[in-house]
Design brief:
The chain is α/β, with parallel strands linked by helices. It contains 7 helices and 10 strands. 44% of the residues are buried. Bound molecules: fructose -6-phosphate.
């Protein structure tokens, strides 16, 4: 794992967006998994802008959504579906056959997990994951205590996630469980980039990079990835030891 520090949120997002473009240029059939949330919003916007400007052929990529709030419909503005629809799929005119998102309204969530795992396995794994980090160290909805060996699963959300998660919704929304790719997917992904910005993320970034790898702080698994990058702005890097 390598830590890369950028001047600010914009520079960090530019770099992350360029990573996606470069990958697709080298591998037009790439499998790309993105997180939703506040951090990747600018990355997605810049990716869409660059792809349109450069006329990047995205017709063969496979898109995988990292996670979803169980029970939240896709037209709710706080859902991951809504985020990707507006930030990525519509601007880039991706076709439905390229898009793989968990249906968090399914009556059979186990089957949703199995189908997602099969899509990823059939495509011979994910080429690039760009993920965020929660205030409890989660990646996706891999909450503290999760197994590092897990593939897709449904999980009871941690209190921190339930509280912080309200920021995505216009009105108070009942949240309880999440459906998510697992940390085994992350470990098996050919490249992983964790992005974070702002002073509020400085503490969790310090733990991600400097604490002993342990599943009570899931993002610490990044340290084990031989092609893993923690890409952060100077504010999020503010508490790191100098030698990182
Ligand atoms: C969202 C997701 C979450 C977020 C994390 C950080 O799809 O997977 O793990 O990446 O909670 O969220 P923001 O970027 O809003 O701080």
């Amino acid at each position: 794992m390598e830590v890369k520090i950028y001047q600010d949120y914009h520079a960090l997002s530019e770099a992350a967006a360029s990573e996606i473009i470069d990958l697709v240029k080298n591998k037009p059939g790439a499998v790309i998994c993105l997180a939703s949330g506040h951090t990747p919003r600018l990355t997605c916007k810049l990716f869409a802008e660059k792809a349109l400007q450069q006329k990047t052929d995205l017709s063969r990529i496979t898109f995988i959504g990292l996670d979803e709030w169980v029970g939240v419909p896709p037209d709710n503005e706080g859902s991951c579906h809504y985020f990707f629809q507006h930030e990525v799929f519509q601007p880039l005119h991706l076709s439905a056959s390229q898009i793989n998102l968990f249906n968090a309204l399914s009556i059979n969530l186990e089957q949703e997990c199995q189908e997602m795992d099969k899509v990823i396995a059939d495509k011979e794994g994910i080429d690039l994951m760009i993920v965020g980090i929660g205030m409890n160290g989660h990646i996706g909805f891999n909450e503290p205590g999760v197994s590092f060996d897990s593939y897709s699963h449904v999980i009871k959300l941690d209190d921190t996630t339930l509280t912080v998660g309200q920021k995505y919704f216009k009105t108070a929304t009942s949240l309880g469980k999440g459906i998510t790719l697992g940390l085994k997917h992350l470990q098996e992904s050919k490249k992983v980039i964790l992005i974070a910005n702002g002073t509020k993320k400085a503490g969790v970034i310090k733990k991600t990079v400097e604490e002993k790898v342990n599943n009570s702080f899931p993002a610490s698994i990044m340290q084990k990835h031989s092609n893993g990058f923690v890409m952060i702005d100077q504010e999020a890097a503010g508490l790191l030891n100098r030698n990182n």
